[in-house]
Design brief:
With about 550 residues, the chain is of the alpha+beta class.
Length: about 550
């Protein structure tokens, strides 16, 4: 008999958010008016308030000019100001260079040709850090850097800002919904803040009525109505009806915000996570409301023998349960769900009560506007297998996956050489990856819908381009901390040693360790003609695929 090894089951608080948080710090927080008003008895024994404060929060000190959150960033935490003052930048935002972003200028024809002649045989050449790097404070190889603004009076004078002081909570909407930060906040004075990671924030909202009312009121007043107005299903409603729906909508979350960690483990071990996906709505149950996906992805499946068949997947803006609710309203008999909805990683959901739909939405809907599951079932076996594979591999997250037809590909590596010629001698992708049938998704950045790599970058170096929406890295403000590379679920970001023109590796004078930079596909941002890899393929074997249009793409393959 094989030896049995006992392994401790992972616990909720195995990794505290702030390892330096002490019992004294927790006691001080409990005396704060924002915390003291919380009823400790409302929290279960396994998740006490003291445990949340000790393990899901940390105390952070900011110097004047430190950027706390940046417009456009993806965050996983909120901030409560304890002492000092901060400023919120009101639209228009600060210039991108002040936020650590890259301003990409489109190259002309002659610039593109000249670039080929300037390329060196030495890959990853950089200039020595200059004045531009001064926006990064205390940069080191451990990622302890923080971006900051140097001339606060000038910024306040030249840009519209609003003061926020002790007792103010901000960043909670982005943290709970995995949506982009809507504004930039920086420290105006020496400031002490309590940073609350999303898990703790979710539980504070769950168990304390005051925090729930505050967070929900903020979202309802600032964002929820706009969310409904942008959804085609609700666009025809009058403002008064829409306001009633906004007032009664419930907020729910499923799955792990840090889904990329377990997903990477699953890929390495070859496990199947379908049985472990949190159920949002179950086949055979009766729905009590319409589900709107605000963020993340969800799988729609039906029972098939002893397993399940994936019908489709839903993403931000999609809805679920409409046909069952509508049919029940039409016939007067409640209809059960004929599919199951489960969370792929992390899903943020809005639940619109059935009564609101029957009063305001269903009277203006026609049967033709209600989608039917039967339409999804009519797929070939090949298309079925493709859908299953794409969902299992989470390629549904991709807007620009690099798909290579292995029957056409001759392994000539013209694509790799073209990429290297466009990027200072070093290619931004590796020509291998996961395969399906005769196709391979190469290890190249897919410019995801939900780019978890953006979460946690201390300097804002990795970000979405305002012009194109591509995920790019500002080489000047990247400090090589590897946060983005460790977060990428698909291993599409690498760290490379940077060099001088002589070929010598640049090293940190204090540690004598090589200076590293993150590198990945940027879709040839600013280059004429789009991705060089696609243009260089002599056999039309390489394509960029948006997996949101998977079924249409499958017909062309």
């Amino acid at each position: 008999m094989a030896d049995v090894v006992s392994v401790a089951r992972p616990q909720r608080w195995d990794t505290p958010f702030g390892p330096d948080m002490t019992d004294g710090d927790v006691d001080d927080l409990l005396r704060r008016p924002e915390i003291a008003s919380i009823d400790l008895d409302r929290f279960p024994i396994h998740t006490p308030l003291t445990g949340i404060l000790r393990n899901d929060t940390r105390l952070v000190r900011f110097a004047p000019g430190d950027i706390v959150v940046r417009e456009g960033d993806y965050g996983n935490s909120a901030f409560l100001i304890l002492d000092g003052g901060m400023r919120v930048v009101i639209a228009p935002s600060l210039p991108r260079n002040l936020l650590g972003r890259q301003v990409v200028e489109r190259k002309g024809f002659f610039d593109s040709v000249a670039q080929l002649w300037r390329n060196s045989w030495v890959p990853e050449i950089r200039d020595r850090p200059g004045e531009s790097s001064r926006m990064v404070r205390d940069a080191d190889l451990r990622g302890g850097a923080r971006a900051f603004l140097q001339d606060i009076p000038a910024i306040i004078d030249q840009h519209r800002t609003a003061s926020i002081s002790a007792g103010t909570l901000f960043g909670e909407l982005a943290a709970l919904g995995r949506i982009q930060r809507t504004a930039t906040v920086f420290a105006e004075t020496e400031t002490l803040a309590l940073e609350i990671r999303w898990q703790g924030l979710r539980e504070l909202r769950k168990y304390d009525e005051g925090w729930r009312r505050q967070i929900d009121a903020t979202y309802r007043s600032n964002a929820l109505k706009n969310h409904f107005e942008e959804n085609a299903l609700f666009r025809g409603l009058r403002s008064q009806a829409l306001e009633k729906i906004v007032e009664t909508t419930l907020f729910e979350t499923y799955g792990s915000f840090d889904w990329h960690a377990s997903y990477r483990q699953m890929r390495q071990t070859g496990g199947d996570v379908l049985d472990d996906e949190p159920i949002i709505a179950r086949e055979g149950n009766y729905p009590d409301g319409l589900l709107l996906i605000r963020a993340g992805f969800a799988r729609v499946s039906v029972k098939l023998g002893n397993g399940r068949r994936t019908l489709t997947y839903l993403g931000a803006g999609d809805h679920y349960g409409l046909s069952a609710l509508y049919d029940g309203w039409k016939t007067g008999e409640a209809g059960a769900l004929d599919t199951t909805l489960s969370a792929l990683g992390y899903v943020d959901v809005l639940r619109v009560p059935a009564g609101m739909l029957e009063e305001h939405l269903f009277p203006i809907l026609t049967p033709a506007e209600v989608p039917r599951v039967g339409e999804l079932v009519a797929r070939s076996l090949d298309e079925d297998a493709l859908m299953e594979w794409a969902v299992e591999e989470r390629y549904v997250n991709a807007t620009q996956a690099m798909l290579i037809d292995l029957q056409k590909c001759t392994r000539c590596d013209d694509c790799v050489r073209a990429c290297a010629s466009t990027h200072e001698g070093n290619p931004r992708f590796i020509r291998h990856g996961r395969t399906f049938d005769n196709y391979m998704v190469a290890n190249a950045c897919m410019h995801c819908i939900d780019p978890v790599c953006l979460i946690g970058c201390p300097t804002g170096a990795i970000h979405r381009s305002v012009e194109s929406g591509n995920v790019i890295i500002n080489d000047e403000t990247c400090i090589g901390c590897a946060t983005c590379a460790n977060s990428c679920p698909y291993d599409n970001i690498r760290l490379v040693e940077i060099r001088e023109e002589t070929g010598a590796v640049m090293t940190d004078p204090e540690t004598e360790r090589p200076i590293m930079k993150a590198t990945k596909c940027d879709l040839c941002e600013g280059q004429l003609g789009g991705p060089a890899c696609v243009r260089a393929c002599p056999h039309d074997a390489l394509h960029r695929i948006d997996f949101r249009e998977l079924e249409e793409a499958a017909k062309q393959w």
